[in-house]
Write a structure and sequence with these properties.
Layout lengths: L28 H11 L3 H4 L14 E7 L3 H10 L7 E4 L28 E2 L15 E2 L21 H9 L7 H11 E3 L17 E4 L6 H12 L15 E4 L2 E4 L2 E2 L2 H9 L5 E4 L2 E9 L4 E9 L2 E13 L5 H8 L2 E2 L1 H6 L6 E2 L5 E3 L3 E13 L6 H10 L12 E5 L13 E6 L20 E10 L6 E4 L10 E3 L6 H18 L2 H7 L1 E3 L16 H10 L1 E3 L31 E3 L14 H19 L19 H10 L22 H8 L10
Parallel strand pairs: 1-2, 1-13, 2-10, 5-6, 13-25, 14-15
Antiparallel strand pairs: 3-4, 6-8, 7-18, 8-9, 11-12, 12-13, 16-21, 17-20, 17-23, 17-24, 18-19, 19-20, 21-22
Helix pairs in contact: 3-7, 3-14, 5-14, 11-13
Length: 680
């Protein structure tokens, strides 16, 4: 048991959050407790010197108050506090990120725990999640770092057409060329010239990006199987190639997860001007009904309701489910909803809570008849991680594999794929230390899942209040498969997954085949499944991804359903912005973690540019009217950062839309900044 002894770190070690050992079941408790004890005693995993220390007493007011310390909020608070003259308060409903979150293989360890997962349930669906009574589960991180501390860590940006679509449909300034610098700003890619190109990636940002140190052999063979089907091989779906199968890069370094809390917030946590309040629920924004100006933020901590003053701006970064709830409780939203719960109407904004949508798919189950189901996590693999941060614990099994293809419904041109595949299996999440059964002939066979996902869903839902109590979860109605288009895409996606399983390498080497009796309640199965069989599977075994967006939609002033303008200001309210996934008009065609980071970087810069004091072209020492939307302010920003790598090189993004000028010159000559949006 010598290996359990804690290291001597520069700062005292502490165990944070609930134990994860119990998430594996009683049969694994002893072995998992030993492993967890090891993790909690390692300096590189616990990061004790950078952990947040709460204040005993907080100030009465702050320049900026950020509500929600998740994926976006951690970034916004860290960026704003870079100015030592500004006082910043971050209010987070959960606690610190538990140390075991650092282990990539334990990606689901903190799901379904009240302290660390909001664990939302949808309203009963007529056409989805029917095997679970129609209620779909949405896991959302409730801790510093939010979902970036409990997600699969996959680094995917989406595609140029996603963001160009935003710009064309009411969000000028958010085209692909305009958002690309903010992807690059956050990125510290460890594999440039080793599978990914410096033409599309950057170094020096806060978030380390690279492939995990371990991937199962089967994952590599699936990539080969995809090539057998005719899909172009690629090592980077964020580069020139937009379709194909690959082992993706992820938010990780040195065999450990990097959440946005670890990348941004912990290095900033010792700043005198940044205060972080944990286990405090932000409940509403206080707005002067006469001037429509934010004056404070209300929160509940230890059962007490308190208010903190705001002198410049309040920023909601609670995510797609929480930010609209706070707006509604603050008197901002559809008038009929506010009247129903006797909430005084500050501003009638019909779009609050509307436009809820999410990637959705079908989960398919396969058996590898030539592969015994041996545990990935045993003493040998545990020691490999303990000593070298390598082996199965340093990866996410099959979850790091992904693929993107075009269905016949995809936009023309072939560069905007509408299907993505996620895989499951070969997990090292739990174990009892053993190598598995001695009798391999009669051992259970390994199971693999493939989730085929519709990336451009047309179905739209909504969320609304259940009551005026901020502790009551909102009502979530995603209306999955309300539009038949989504099911039609999944039929084609599922057929391709079946073809993939039947490729020579997977069939001959692994004996891969659809699991017997899976979907037995769906008619039309068998060796030649029908379209109706796959539709039934999608409705029974729905894969409801955790990529929800849209409930505080960004749009133009003439869009009645827009909640925020292109600088993320809430329409009609002074001193209030929303910066998180809820502002996305449409979900990007990929995992949403990297796009949320981009939104947070961009939103923080809007605020900095609006309030930062520097000389503009007229020689005054005040911001140009309109703040972040000023062309001259933008040029000032880029010129002041001209030595950064991502701002001082040629950019060539793809063969369809090339640009060989430096970005600051391209911005100036092409006049791509948004015009100032008037408040309604």
């Amino acid at each position: 048991m010598m290996i359990r002894a804690a290291e001597t770190c520069a700062c005292p070690l502490q165990e944070l959050g609930p134990s994860m050992a119990g998430s594996c079941g009683s049969q694994f408790i002893i072995f998992m407790s030993i492993l967890e004890s090891f993790i909690n005693g390692r300096c590189d995993l616990v990061d004790p010197c950078n952990r947040v220390v709460e204040r005993e007493q907080y100030d009465d007011s702050y320049d900026f108050v950020v509500v929600g310390g998740g994926t976006a909020g951690a970034i916004v608070a860290a960026r704003l506090s870079e100015n030592p003259q500004w006082k910043v308060l971050l209010i987070e409903a959960g606690g610190e990120e538990p140390s075991p979150c650092s282990v990539p293989a334990w990606v689901t360890a903190y799901w379904n725990k009240n302290e660390t997962d909001w664990n939302y349930k949808t309203e009963p669906q007529e056409k989805a999640c029917l095997a679970n009574g129609g209620r779909c589960t949405w896991h959302r991180g409730k801790m510093l770092g939010g979902c970036s501390a409990i997600n699969g860590m996959m680094y995917m940006r989406g595609h140029a057409a996603d963001y160009d679509g935003w710009a064309v449909n009411g969000a000028p300034g958010w085209s692909w060329f305009e958002v690309m610098p903010y992807f690059l700003k956050s990125e510290d890619n460890k594999e440039i010239s080793d599978g990914v190109s410096g033409q599309y990636h950057n170094t020096g940002g806060p978030i380390p990006v690279q492939r995990f140190r371990y991937a199962p052999r089967f994952a590599h063979d699936v990539v080969s199987a995809a090539v057998e089907l005719g899909f172009t091989p690629t090592s980077d779906l964020n580069g020139e190639t937009t379709t194909g199968f690959t082992i993706a890069q992820a938010f990780n370094d040195g065999g450990t997860r990097f959440s946005t809390a670890r990348a941004y917030l912990r290095p900033a946590s010792h700043r005198e001007n940044l205060d972080i309040m944990l286990n405090a629920l932000g409940t509403r924004v206080i707005i002067d009904p006469r001037t429509k100006t934010v004056t404070g933020v209300e929160y509940v901590k230890n059962g007490e309701t308190k208010t903190v003053g705001v002198t410049k701006e309040a920023i909601l970064s609670g995510g797609t489910m929480v930010s609209p709830q706070i707006l509604l409780l603050s008197g901002l939203g559809p008038k009929e909803t506010l009247d129903k719960f006797n909430i005084p109407v500050i501003k009638d904004l019909p779009g609050v809570g509307q436009n809820l949508h999410n990637h959705v798919g079908v989960k398919l189950d396969f058996t590898l008849s030539k592969e015994p189901d041996l545990p990935e996590l045993n003493w040998e693999s545990a020691m490999e991680y303990m000593l070298e941060r390598k082996g199965p614990l340093s990866g996410t099994g099959m979850s790091q594999l992904t693929g993107m293809i075009n269905s016949r419904f995809a936009p023309s041109g072939g560069r905007h794929p509408d299907i993505q595949y996620f895989f499951g299996g070969y997990y090292a999440a739990c174990g009892d230390g053993s190598l598995g059964p001695d009798d391999l002939e009669n051992a259970n066979k390994r199971k693999i899942s493939i989730s085929a996902i519709a990336l451009q869903p047309k179905s739209r839902g909504f969320l609304t209040l259940r009551s005026g109590d901020p502790f009551d979860y909102p009502l979530f109605q995603p209306n999955y498969f309300q539009d038949d288009h989504d099911l039609a895409v999944l039929v084609e996606a599922a057929r391709t997954a079946y073809r993939l399983a039947n490729t020579t390498i997977l069939r001959e080497k692994y004996g891969m085949h659809p699991t017997e009796n899976y979907g037995k309640h769906c008619p039309g199965g068998g060796s030649n499944p029908t379209d109706e069989f796959f539709k039934c599977l999608a409705q029974q075994h729905t894969a409801p991804e955790n990529h929800q967006v849209g409930t505080c939609k960004m749009g133009s002033s003439d869009d009645p359903m827009a909640v925020v303008d292109p600088t993320l200001k809430v329409y009609g309210i002074e001193g209030l912005r929303v910066i998180d996934a809820s502002i996305m008009p449409t979900v990007p065609s990929a995992n949403t973690a990297a796009p949320v980071v981009m939104v947070a970087e961009r939103g923080a810069e809007f605020i900095v540019t609006r309030h930062q004091r520097f000389k503009n072209k007229f020689g005054s020492n005040t911001p140009t009217k309109g703040g972040a939307t000023s062309h001259d302010d933008r040029r000032t920003y880029y010129n002041s950062h001209k030595d950064s790598k991502w701002n001082n090189r040629d950019w060539v993004f793809n063969i369809n839309r090339q640009n060989t000028q430096k970005p600051q010159d391209w911005y100036r000559f092409n006049n791509v900044y948004p015009t100032r949006q008037s408040h309604r």
